[in-house]
Amino acid sequence: MLGKGGKRKFDEHEDGLEGKVVSPTDGPSKVSYTLQRQTIFNISLMKLYNHRPLTEPSLQKTVLINNMLRRIQEELKQEGSLRPVFMTASQPADPLSDNFREAQPAFSHLTSQPLLPTDFVSTTPLESCLTPASLLEDDTFCTSPTVQHDGPTKPPPPALQPVKDSFSSALDEIEELCPAPTSAEAVAVETAADDSKDHLSESNVQKPEGLPESRTAESKLMDSLPGNFEITTSTGFLTDLTLDDILFADIDTSMYDFDPCTSATGAASKMAPVSADELLKTLAPYSSQPVTPNQPFKMDLTELDHIMEVLVGS
Amino acid sequence: FLGAGGGNDIQWCFSQVKGAVDDDVAEADIISTVEFNHSGELLATGDKGGRVVIFQQEQENKTQSHSRGEYNVYSTFQSHEPEFDYLKSLEIEEKINKIRWLPQKNAAQFLLSTNDKTIKLWKISERDKRPEGYNLKEEDGRYRDPTTVTTLRVPVFRPMDLMVEASPRRIFANAHTYHINSISINSDYETYLSADDLRINLWHLEITDRSFNIVDIKPANMEELTEVITAAEFHPNSCNTFVYSSSKGTIRLCDMRASALCDRHSKLFEEPEDPSNRSFFSEIISSISDVKFSHSGRYMMTRDYLSVKIWDLNMENRPVETYQVHEYLRSKLCSLYENDCIFDKFECCWNGSDRQVEFFSIIVMTGSYNNFFRMFDRNTKRDITLEASRENNKPRTVLKPRKVCASGKRKKDEISVDSLDFNKKILHTAWHPKENIIAVATTNNLYIFQDKMN
User: What spans are recorded as compositionally biased (Basic and acidic residues) (chain A) (predicted)?
Assistant: First the structure.
């Protein structure tokens, strides 16, 4: 657990993401912890996927970046905000390739390097819980959900307007059902995603196919994995779960309720075309999941078709 | 500070600078390794263009007692050429990663130089005489008409202008799937090791068609890979002992007598993480970029991103000394991650062996950004920051200590963290084995500093 001692001052003069480590146990800096984490996650993904060297990339660098991504991923998973809907790239069998590919599931190997305690259980009192989300309900920027969703969606391209509507209607549905912290968390992630989008927009001149950096981690992975594995021969990443695991595991999809909205509209200007297959695969689990009290979100297949039509057919 | 004068403090003075003056750095000129030979008479540099340049120290002029001999170019040769790996459709860089000298056994000098994939043994020999007076050949090499030969004579050697020739005597290739980061010659002077990201191989200097694999950390499933080898070195005295460091901040000491494959370490050196310093970047900054045994072999030094640590081989759980190189960067790690500076591999070195008496009078040196380099004196417990810059280029001018202002009011002559030039990094430094002469490589220039002699 990150020590409670030595509370660090957040240096106003520095870039908001700099300054010392922001402990998630600090008050309002929990948000900046999330922001920092999200930014680091984005940067890490960019490093892996933007790299088009003529020479082989450094294995050490790749390993360190991958470890970083996995750590953040594990952290998010523990917080319940990152659910295993990661795409598994159908990796080409490459017996000749001795190149490094990112790890298979088994989060067990991550326990050696926890940044946060691994004992995140719901019985933990809210105050000592390190999940930024659960403490964000006190934050003032958690305004009404509909307003929030409008924010990041500017400017939505005309083609996607119908999508947005159906999404936001679905979202409205969710918000009635979801507990406040979840929506606050989603809002925070969205906001973080947008901030990081702004932060990174100028540095992201060259993009690999299918990787808009404004998305949150989850949607990024959904979109970018299948295509990129073909190209980046030595930096495969995030093949965390097989499709079977996804399909037959219980999934808390509450976070994902908000992500499609953000990604579909807020990042519209930078979004690369998502193939129908990819979208279908990522969204399929939702439709096959039994609805539990904590997972009220359902997406009709008809809505799915509609979305796909819009995204792909237009 | 060192350099404040008095006592045993060294006062470092500018001596020479080699390399292009203009700010526009040609990629091929980027210096990638610096190494003195065992006597200190020769100083070798390798660059990104695959070339090796060797400087030789002038013999001390007895009348000029105020300075030691200057280093002048002795030999330049193309060690490695770029290659293309057709299997992976990737270029193999010709950049020289490491140079290691062999101890001199005869008139010729030998060194090992390596790029990412291939190690070469080079022989550097002098030719200052040539045979003259052949019977069948003219001096220019043309053959004489045998019928014109009326007398016979014995060819004799006559002096000629010194010519230094470098020739590759051995090529050790095709033994590394990953990028070679270290080579180290054994104290038996017959074998050496080469280490890449996942494996360490043992070679015999005479045999090029095979090597023994002594460490292999490649997992069966590459997707489980989380740690790589970053540096390796043989013990200076025990020919069966070597260490290798990892990207997770650990150092493993292995004994080759224990088994053929030294996957199980004899000792594991690791310092527990300071929880108050933990951040997203803890692992990355703990990655060890260099490991060097002390000349006695009792200690070893490791360099990670922010610090230099000295370890006693008898104590595995923590270093005996930790020196902060540029702690002010700790708050900048996110930016340094973004611009990749956090992956810079700084080297470190000990002062000369003759000067070290066990743990006393040890000084270690390492580089930093803004063309700064740092020295830590174990004896006086003092440290100093100096700058390698052409501005201080008057010989025998004592270098002025530099100071970085981490935060708050910047004093006169201090430089603030935000003004540091992260493109000007000193990754490679070397210390003369016997004298207080140091070689410091900036991006494309080589600086030589000496202590002020009276």
Answer: 8-18
Q: Which domain holds residue B322?
A: 12-146+154-451
Q: Of B92, B230, B275, which has the smallest distance from its Cβ to A3's Cβ?
A: B275
Q: Evaluate whether A307 touches A279 at the Cβ level (below 8 Å).
A: yes
d(CA A290, CA B130): 91
Residue A59 lies in a domain: yes
Per the domain annotation, does A47 fall within a domain? yes
pLDDT at position B362 is 86
Quick check: B14 and B447 in contact, CB under 8 A? yes
What are the residues whose beta carbons fall under 8 Å from the beta carbon of A86, sequence distance 6 or more? A218, A221, A222, A225, A238, A239, A240, A241, A246
Nearest CA in chain A to B327: A20
Residue B7 inside a domain? The answer is: no
A vs B, Cβ pairs < 8 A, gives 114
Whether B2 is in a domain gets the answer no
Report if residue B4 sits inside a domain: no
**Does residue B312 sit within a domain?**
yes
Based on the structure, what is the number of domains in chain A?
A: 1
pLDDT for residue B381 = 86
- Residue among B87, B222, B334 whose CB faces A100 most closely: B222
How far apart, in whole angstroms, are the C-alpha atoms of residue B334 and residue A16? 10
Sort out which chain B residues have CB atoms less than 8 A from A36's CB and list them: 280, 334
Q: Which domain holds residue A37?
A: 29-79
pLDDT in tens, A169-179: 555 555 555 44
Question: Can you tell me the distance from the alpha carbon of B88 to that of A196, in angstroms, rounded to the nearest whole number?
Answer: 35
Say whether residue A292 is in contact with chain B using an 8 A CB cutoff.
Answer: no
Percent of chain B with pLDDT over 70: 95
Q: Please count the structural domains in chain B.
A: 1
Min Cα–Cα distance to chain A from B79, Å: 19
- A15 interaction partners in chain B (CB closer than 8 Å): 334-335
Least Cα separation, residue B88 to chain A (angstroms) = 8
Q: Residues A125-151: what's their mean pLDDT?
A: 38
Q: Are A85 and A282 in contact (CB under 8 A)?
A: yes
What residue in B sits closest to A2 (Cα-Cα)?
B275
Residue pair B154/B133 in contact (Cβ under 8 Å)? The answer is yes
> What is the structure's pLDDT at A175?
57
Residue B275 · residue B262 · CB < 8 Å: no
Mean per-residue pLDDT of chain B: 91
pLDDT of residue B395: 80
Q: Check CB contact under 8 Å for A104 and B90.
A: no
In the stretch 1-60 of chain A, residues with CB closer than 8 A to chain B read: 2-3, 5-6, 11, 14-15, 17-21, 36-37, 39-40, 43, 47, 53-56, 58-60
Q: For residue B407, give the CATH number of its domain.
A: 2.130.10.10
Between the CA atoms of A72, A77, A80 and A85, what dihedral angle is there, to the nearest 10 degrees?
120
Residues 274-333 on B with a CB inside 8 Å of A are 275-284, 287, 330-332
pLDDT tens per residue across span A205-248: 343 333 333 344 444 443 333 333 323 334 444 444 344 444 44
| pLDDT, mean of residues A75-83 | 76
Q: What is the pTM of this model?
A: 0.68
Cβ neighbours of B335 in A, within 8 Å: 15, 18
Omega of the bond leading into A105 within 30 degrees of 0 (cis) = no
Residue A234 included in any domain: no
Cβ–Cβ contact B339 with A under 8 A:
no
Q: What is the ipTM of this complex?
A: 0.91
